[in-house]
Write a structure and sequence with these properties.
The complex is a heterodimer. By secondary structure, chain A is of the alpha+beta class. Chain A contains 19 helices and 21 strands. Chain A is 32% helix and 22% strand. Chain B starts with 26 loop residues before the first helix and ends with a helix. The chains are: A alpha+beta, B alpha+beta. Chain A: InterPro entries: 2Fe-2S-bd (IPR002888), 2Fe-2S-bd_dom_sf (IPR036884), 2Fe-2S_ferredoxin-like_sf (IPR036010), 2Fe-2S_ferredoxin-type (IPR001041), 2Fe2S_fd_BS (IPR006058), Ald_Oxase/xanthine_DH-like (IPR016208), Beta-grasp_dom_sf (IPR012675), CO_DH_flav_C (IPR005107).
Chain lengths: 487, 780
C-alpha cells in the first residue's frame, strides 16, 4: 500500500502540500493564521453562523462538485484531494466583482459586512448549481448563514437577481473544471496519509479495509467523518482528539442506493448526498433533512455520524428506528448487523465495541399499507436543534391499527420508541377515541427533562399532539404550517 | 482618491449628495472580503494573544486562586490578575465604581472575568485558561427578577414619572384591570465579536484598535486603568461588524485588558474572546417584569395607568439607569394617558450587567403599553386597533407625555390610517375570521401597532458632536467625525452631507477611521443619533471652510458674497465658473485655511430627572406595522405570513440605507419577541451562549410578504440635518405587531373572549401554553 506524509489540496489557484498539518487544525485557522486569507471570518467557531463559509470541491464518482462548508469546524485532514475556494478567489483579475458580489452591492445586501463573505460564498455555491433559483432555494441555501443587520430581505433580492449579472457557465470554476478535475485526480493517489507521530497522528486511510485495520490497531482513535460534532470538541471544549482518522474521503463509505426494498446508506454519506434519493423514496425524510443544520452542515455532516455519536437529539435516528432500520458494524473484517434501536443503550453509551465502526445503515422502505410521518419541533424552524422529534410508521387495515412503530428524539436519554403508546394503539380501531386513550401511555414511555430548548411539560404536550396530528392527517385533515404553497 | 481630470461644468447634480440612494461606502469591500476588521489587521512581530479566565460561580468570595499551572502552560507569557492593574480597577461607565476589570476578592456573576492569560497564540491562551484552580465560598445568588423581594437591592436610583393623580383616576374609572407581563432580554449577536488590539508606544502611550461604539469612553477607561492621562491613549475604529448597543460600554473590558498587557510586556496584544465567552461575559438587553394597572371606560378610553417596570440589571449599574429611564419614557408608546404613574426598579441580580441594546429600554416600555391596549380591547370585546386609535396622542390637546413634554410633531394618526388602508386591514380581519372558523389546527392572527420613539440622549450633555474636515489642494476632501460605523451607513450619510455642502461628487470625500486623536470627547454612536449629530458637525466644518472660500473669492474677484455659488463640481464667481479644485488652489495660494473642526449640540432639550419633567427629546420618529401570522395550535409553531410597514424618516438622507435599517431593525425586533430566548439555570449559568442554542432569525423566518414603505410626505419639524430623522432604533419596535398578531391568533381559540397575555419571547412553547390557557379559560 502506498503511503505519504502530507495532505495535498488546491487552495484557490494554488496547489498546497502540507506535511505539518496538525490533526485538530481547522481550515479556518489555516486560512486566517497561516495563509493570511482574512476574508473568511470567524463568527461562532461551531458551524452555526456561516461567516466562515468557503467552498470545497471534491470528486464524486469522477464528477467535480463544489459544496459550501463551515471552515471553522472543517479539519485540514478532511481536505485531501479537494479544491478549497475562498472569497478571495471571486474577484476578477481586472478588479471587477463576481456577479453574486455585484448583485449584493447593488441590492444593498451588506451593512456591517462581517457576515457578507460567508453569504457570498453560500450564494456562489447556489449560483453554480442553480443560476436562477427560486426564493425557496435561496432560503434553503442560506439556512446556515446568520445576518444581524439586514433582515435578509436585500440579500434574498440580490440572490434572485444574480443571474442577470453574468452567466454561470463562464464562471472560472466552470471553465477551469477539467484542469481542476485532473489536478484532484492526480492528488487522489489511493495512498494512506499519515502525519505526525505516536499519539499526535493524523491518518487518512487508503480505503475502508485500511480504515478497519487502523481502527483495530488504534481503537481509541477519533473517527472524523463530517466533523460537525467533533469540530466542536476542538473549538469549544479544546479536547485532545488525536490520533484522528479522517474517513470523509473514502468513496466506499459514500455509497447510497436502493436494493431489495431498502435504502442502503454508507456511513460517510452526507445529508446532502442522501437527500435526493430519500426525498424521492421516503418524502418525509427529505423534508426532515431540509431542517437539519444549514446547507454547510448538511454538506459535511453524515447520517452515519448522526447515529454513531449517540446523541438523544440526533434528528435521523427516530425516523430510522420507526422505519425499522438496521445498522452494520464492522471490526476488522468481521461485520454484524443489528436493529438500529438496539444500538442506543443509554446516554453516551452505544453498542459499539472498541475498534468497531458504523459501516452502513439500511432503511426498509415504508410498507404500501403503512403511513409514515416525521415531525421536528424546534424553537426556530430551520437550523436549530430538536426540542421534540416524533416519527410514526403505522399500518391501518380494515379500520384497525395493524402495526405501529413510534419513536421520539428529545424525550429521553436516547432516541427511543414509544412502546407503551404502540401497545395502546395496536389492534384498536383507528379512531379519535383510540388516539386520545393512548395519550396517557406517553407518561409510561417518557419522562422528558427541562432545558434551554423546552420544558418537560411542553415536550410531553407537543409529543402527544404529534400523535393527534398523525391521526388528523391520516383521516384527510390538513394541519400543517407551510412557508410555500404546494410545498 | 483620484482627482477628477475633466469636470463637467454643465452637471446638474453631484453623485452621492443627500437624498440619493448612495451605496454603503464599504459594500465592494464587504463582498470581496477586503474590508478590514480588527482581527484581519496584519499582526506586528511579537504580537501576543489574551484570553479571559471567567468565574464559575454566580456569587461568592474567592478563597484561593492557584494559577501556577496556567503560568506553566506552553506559550504562556504572563497572567494578569487584579493586582497587575496599574491604575484603577474599574470600568463602570457611570462613575459608580461598581464594575471591576478583574474580580479581586469576590465574584458577582457566573462568567465574571477573574484573570487574563497572555500567550504566544490565541489557542495557547485559551487552553492555558482552563488550567486555573480557583476556589470560592459561594453565597446565595439572586438570578431571576421574579425572585426579587420588595426590599431587593437596586443598582442605581429608580425613576418616577407622574402626571395627574393616577390612583384616583383608576379608582374612579368604570373599569380597571391589573396584570403582569414578562419581557425577555436579548443578546446582541453582532457577527463580529468583541475585540481589541493594543499597540504599546513611547512613554505611557498606547494605541488601541477597539471594536467600540464609544471610542472616547474606551480612551478614558484605558487611561484610568493604566493610570495615565487621556492624552497618552488613542483609540481607533474603522468599522465594527455590528454593534446594536453591545459595543457601547462592553468594549471597555477588552480594550483595557489588551492595553494593560501591551504596556506591561511592551508587545502588541490582541484580545478576541470566543463567542461563548463573549455571550457569557458581556451584557445584554434587560429583561423586565412589568406590573400594570389601567383604568378605562366602556368606550375603551384609557383614564389612568399605574406601571412598575422591574428590570434585571445584573451585578452593576452599567447603563441600567438610563435604560430603565427610557423604559418609562416609552411606557406610553403613542398613547395619551390622562393620568399616569410609572416607576422603575433597576434590580441587582447575580448575572452579567445588562447594557444598551437598540431601543435602550424603549422597546420594553412600549411592549407594556401595548399589553395594556390588549387588556382594554379584550375586556370590551373590541378590535385592539380600535382601542389603539382611540387612545393616540392628539395634536392640539391630549398631547402631554407622562414626563410633561408636549408632543408637537405627532403624525401617528396619519401613519396608522395610511397603513390600515394600504395593508387592507379591515378586509383581512374579515378573511381571517372566516379562515379561523374553518381551520381546526392552524389559526391566523392580525395586528397593527404604532411606534413613537423619542430622539436624543436623555442625558442632555451627550447630545454633542465634533467633526474634522480638510480640503487638500487638489480639491479632495478628508472627512473625520466622532461617529462610528457599525454597518448602519453613518459614514456614507455624513459623507453625503459633506459632498452636498461642497457640491462635489462623493468619491472626492475620503471617509476615515474614527479616532480619538482627531475628534475628541465624543459621545457614543448610540440613541439613533449618529447622523443627526455627526452630520450636523460635519456640515458645520464644511460650512466654515465654505465661508472662508466665499469671503476669499468675493474679495479676490471683487464680487458680492452672494455671487459666489457652489454648483455641482464647480463654483460660480460672478459671471464665471471654475472647477472646485481651481478655487481651492487659488485659496491655498492666498493662504486661506482649508481645514475646520465642526461642532454641533442639539438645541431645545432639557431634563430634570428629580422632578421627572422636561423636554428630553428633540423630536419623535413615527411608524406603524401590520403583521399577519399563522400558528399551529398543536405545537405552538408559527409563521409570519405578511408584514406591512409604513415608517417615516423625515426627508431621508438616503432611502436605501433607511429602508435597510427598517427591514433589519424589524427582523431583529421580531427575533427578540419570538425565538431569541436567554435561559439562565439555577446556578446562574447562561445556557444559551452560542448560535447553536440562541436563535436569531434566519432568512426563512422573514415574513413571506414584506412590504416596507417610507412616508414620503414626512419632514422633520425641527431643523435637523436636511430635515431628516433618526432611523437606527425606531423600526426595531415595529416588530411588536408580530407579538400581537400571535396573541390575536391565540385568542381565536376562545373566540377572542380571553386576553392571551402572551409574554415575550413568544417561543413555540409560550404560544402553545397560551393556547392551552386561553382554551381552558374560554371553556369556563
Amino acid at each position: 500500500m502506498k503511503a505519504r506524509s502530507e495532505i495535498r489540496f488546491l487552495l484557490n489557484g494554488t496547489p498546497v502540500a502540507l506535511g505539518n498539518a496538525r490533526p485538530d487544525e481547522t481550515l479556518l485557522d489555516y486560512l486566517r493564521l497561516r495563509q493570511r486569507l482574512t476574508g473568511t471570518k470567524e463568527g461562532c467557531a461551531e458551524g452555526d453562523c456561516g461567516a466562515c463559509t468557503v467552498l470545497v470541491g471534491r470528486l464524486r464518482k469522477g464528477e467535480l462538485v463544489y459544496e459550501s462548508v463551515n471552515a471553522c469546524i472543517r479539519f485540514l485532514g478532511s481536505l485531501d484531494a479537494c479544491h478549497v475556494v475562498t472569497v478571495e478567489h471571486l474577484k476578477r483579475a481586472d478588479g471587477s466583482l463576481h456577479p453574486v458580489q455585484q448583485a449584493m452591492v447593488d441590492y444593498h445586501g451588506s451593512q456591517c459586512g462581517f457576515c457578507t463573505p460567508g453569504f457570498v460564498m453560500s450564494l456562489y455555491a447556489l449560483w453554480m448549481r442553480e443560476p436562477q433559483p427560486t426564493e425557496r432555494a435561496v432560503e434553503k441555501a442560506l439556512q446556515g448563514n446568520l445576518c444581524r443587520c439586514t433582515g435578509y430581505e436585500p440579500i434574498v433580492r440580490a440572490a434572485l437577481a444574480a443571474s442577470t449579472y453574468g452567466n454561470a457557465m463562464s464562471d472560472p470554476l466552470a471553465t477551469e473544471r477539467a484542469a481542476v478535475i485532473a489536478a484532484l485526480n492526480q492528488m487522489k493517489d489511493g495512498a494512506r496519509v499519515e502525519i505526525g507521530s505516536a499519539q499526535d497522528r493524523l491518518l487518512i486511510p487508503a480505503n475502508v479495509d485500511d480504515f478497519a485495520a487502523i481502527l483495530e490497531a488504534e481503537p481509541k482513535a477519533t473517527i472524523v467523518a463530517g466533523a460537525t460534532d467533533v469540530g466542536l470538541w476542538v473549538t469549544k471544549f479544546m479536547r485532545e482528539i488525536a490520533p484522528v482518522v479522517f474517513i470523509g474521503g473514502l468513496d466506499e463509505l459514500r455509497d447510497i442506493g436502493e436494493e431489495n426494498g431498502a435504502i442502503h446508506i454508507g456511513a460517510g454519506v452526507s445529508y446532502s448526498d442522501a437527500f435526493a434519493l430519500l426525498a424521492k423514496r421516503i418524502p418525509p425524510l427529505g423534508a426532515l433533512i431540509d431542517r437539519i443544520g444549514g446547507e454547510q452542515v448538511r454538506n459535511m455532516g453524515t447520517i452515519g455520524g448522526n447515529i454513531a455519536n449517540g446523541s438523544p437529539i440526533g434528528d435521523t435516528p427516530p425516523p430510522l428506528i420507526a422505519l425499522g432500520a438496521t445498522l452494520t458494524l464492522r471490526k476488522g473484517n468481521t461485520r454484524r448487523t443489528i436493529p438500529l434501536e438496539d444500538f442506543f443503550i443509554d446516554y453516551g453509551k452505544q453498542d459499539r465495541a472498541p475498534g468497531e465502526f458504523v459501516e452502513a445503515v439500511h432503511v426498509p422502505l415504508p410498507d404500501a399499507a403503512s403511513r409514515f410521518a416525521v415531525w421536528k419541533i424546534s424553537k426556530r424552524r430551520d437550523e436549530d436543534i430538536t426540542a421534540v422529534l416524533g416519527a410514526f410508521d403505522i399500518s391501518i387495515a380494515d379500520g384497525r391499527v395493524e402495526a405501529a412503530r413510534i419513536a421520539y428524539g428529545g424525550m429521553a436519554a436516547t432516541p427511543k420508541r414509544a412502546k407503551a403508546v404502540e401497545v395502546a394503539l395496536v389492534g384498536k380501531p383507528w379512531t379519535e377515541e383510540t388516539v386520545e386513550a393512548a395519550l396517557s401511555a406517553y407518561e409510561e414511555d417518557f419522562q422528558p427533562i427541562s432545558d434551554m430548548r423546552a420544558s418537560a411539560g411542553y415536550r410531553m404536550m407537543a409529543a402527544k399532539n404529534l400523535l393527534r396530528r398523525f391521526y388528523l392527517e391520516s383521516t384527510g385533515g390538513s394541519a400543517k404550517l407551510s412557508r410555500y404553497e404546494a410545498a | 482618491m483620484t482627482r477628477h481630470e475633466t469636470l463637467d461644468l454643465e452637471k446638474a447634480r453631484i453623485a452621492g449628495g443627500v437624498a440619493s440612494d448612495q451605496k454603503h461606502d464599504s459594500a465592494h469591500k464587504h463582498v470581496s472580503g477586503e474590508a478590514v476588521y480588527i482581527d484581519d489587521m496584519p499582526e506586528p512581530a511579537g504580537t501576543l494573544h489574551a484570553c479571559l479566565g471567567l468565574s464559575e460561580v454566580a456569587h461568592g468570595t474567592i478563597t484561593s486562586m492557584d494559577l501556577s499551572k496556567v503560568r506553566a502552560a506552553p506559550g504562556v507569557v504572563t497572567v494578569l490578575t487584579a493586582d497587575d492593574i496599574p491604575g484603577e480597577n474599574d470600568i463602570s461607565p457611570t462613575g459608580l465604581h461598581d464594575e471591576p476589570i478583574l474580580a479581586s476578592d469576590r465574584v458577582q456573576f457566573f462568567g465574571q472575568p477573574v484573570f487574563a492569560v497572555i500567550a504566544e497564540t490565541r489557542d495557547a491562551a485559551r487552553r492555558a485558561c482552563r488550567l486555573a484552580k480557583i476556589e470560592y465560598a459561594e453565597e446565595p445568588a439572586l438570578i431571576d427578577i421574579a425572585d426579587a423581594g420588595a426590599d431587593a437591592r437596586l443598582v442605581t436610583a429608580p425613576l418616577k414619572l407622574e402626571r395627574g393623580d393616577s390612583a384616583a383616576a383608576i379608582a374612579a374609572a368604570p373599569r380597571s384591570i391589573k396584570g403582569q407581563m414578562r419581557v425577555g432580554g436579548q443578546d446582541h449577536f453582532y457577527l463580529e465579536g468583541q475585540i481589541a488590539f493594543a499597540m504599546p508606544g513611547e512613554d505611557g502611550d498606547v494605541t488601541v484598535f477597539s471594536s467600540t461604539q464609544h471610542p472616547s469612553e474606551v480612551q478614558h477607561m484605558v487611561a484610568h486603568a493604566l493610570g495615565v492621562s487621556s492624552h497618552a491613549v488613542t483609540i481607533e475604529v474603522r468599522r465594527m461588524g455590528g454593534g446594536f448597543g453591545g459595543k457601547e460600554t462592553q468594549a471597555n473590558l477588552f480594550a483595557v485588558i489588551s492595553a494593560i498587557a501591551a504596556k506591561k510586556l511592551n508587545r502588541p496584544v490582541k484580545l478576541r474572546p470566543d463567542r461563548d465567552d463573549d455571550m457569557t461575559a458581556t451584557g445584554k438587553r434587560h429583561d423586565f417584569l412589568i406590573d400594570y394597572e389601567v383604568g378605562f371606560d366602556d368606550e375603551g378610553n384609557i383614564l389612568g395607568v399605574d406601571l412598575t417596570y422591574a428590570a434585571r440589571c445584573g451585578y452593576a449599574a452599567d447603563l441600567s439607569g438610563p435604560v430603565t429611564d427610557r423604559a418609562l419614557f416609552h411606557c406610553d408608546n403613542a398613547y395619551f394617558y390622562p393620568a399616569a404613574r410609572a416607576v422603575s426598579r433597576p434590580l441587582y441580580t447575580n448575572t452579567v450587567s445588562n447594557t444598551a441594546f437598540r431601543g435602550f429600554g424603549g422597546p420594553q416600555g412600549m411592549v407594556g403599553a401595548e399589553r395594556i391596549i390588549d387588556e382594554v380591547a379584550f375586556a370590551l370585546g373590541k378590535d385592539p386597533l380600535e382601542i389603539r386609535k382611540k387612545n393616540l396622542y392628539g395634536t392640539d390637546d391630549r398631547n402631554v407625555t407622562p414626563y410633561h413634554q408636549t408632543v408637537e410633531d405627532n403624525v401617528a394618526e396619519r401613519v396608522i390610517a395610511e397603513l390600515e388602508a394600504s395593508a387592507d386591514y379591515a378586509a383581512r380581519r374579515r378573511e381571517i375570521a372566516v379562515f379561523n372558523a374553518k381551520s381546526q389546527v392552524i389559526k391566523r392572527g392580525l395586528a397593527l401597532t404604532p411606534v413613537k420613539f423619542g430622539i436624543s440622549f436623555t442625558a442632555t450633555h451627550f447630545n454633542q458632536a465634533g467633526a474634522l474636515v480638510h480640503v487638500y489642494t487638489d480639491g479632495s476632501v478628508h472627512l473625520n467625525h466622532g461617529g462610528t460605523e457599525m454597518g448602519q451607513g453613518l459614514y456614507t450619510k455624513v459623507a453625503q452631507v459633506v459632498a452636498e455642502e461642497f457640491q462635489i461628487d462623493i468619491d472626492q470625500v475620503k471617509i476615515t477611521a474614527t479616532t480619538t486623536g482627531k475628534v475628541p470627547n465624543t459621545s457614543a454612536t448610540a440613541a439613533s443619533s449618529g447622523s443627526d449629530l455627526n452630520g450636523m458637525a460635519a456640515q458645520d466644518a464644511a460650512r466654515q471652510i465654505k465661508t472662508r472660500l466665499i469671503d476669499f473669492a468675493s474679495e479676490a474677484h471683487d464680487v458680492p458674497k452672494d455671487q459666489v455659488v457652489f454648483l455641482p463640481g464647480r463654483v460660480r464667481i460672478g459671471n464665471r465658473e471654475i472647477p472646485f479644485a481651481d478655487l481651492i488652489r487659488e485659496a491655498y495660494m492666498a493662504r486661506i485655511q482649508l481645514s475646520a473642526a465642526g461642532f454641533y449640540k442639539t438645541p431645545k432639550i432639557h431634563w430634570d430627572r428629580d422632578k421627572g419633567q422636561g423636554r428630553p427629546f428633540y423630536y419623535f420618529a413615527y411608524g406603524a406595522a401590520c403583521a399577519e401570522v399563522s400558528i399551529d395550535t398543536l405545537t405552538g409553531e408559527y409563521m409570519v405570513e405578511r408584514v406591512d410597514i409604513l415608517h417615516e424618516t423625515g426627508r431621508s438622507l438616503n432611502r436605501a440605507i433607511d429602508i435597510g435599517q427598517i427591514e433589519g431593525g424589524f427582523i431583529q425586533g421580531m427575533g427578540w419577541l419570538t425565538t431569541e430566548e436567554l435561559v439562565w439555570d439555577g446556578k446562574g449559568r447562561l445556557r444559551t451562549h452560542a448560535p447553536s442554542t440562541y436563535k436569531i432569525p434566519l432568512a426563512s423566518d422573514r415574513p413571506k410578504v414584506f412590504n416596507v414603505a417610507l412616508a414620503d410626505w414626512a419632514e422633520n419639524a425641527e431643523p435637523t440635518v436636511h430635515r431628516s430623522k433618526a432611523v437606527g432604533e425606531p423600526p426595531f419596535m415595529l416588530a411588536m405587531c408580530v407579538l400581537h398578531a400571535l396573541s390575536d391568533a391565540v385568542a381565536s381559540v376562545a373566540d377572542h373572549k380571553v386576553c392571551p397575555r402572551l409574554d415575550a419571547p413568544a417561543t413555540p412553547e409560550r404560544v402553545l401554553m397560551a393556547v392551552e390557557r386561553v382554551r381552558a379559560e374560554g371553556a369556563r
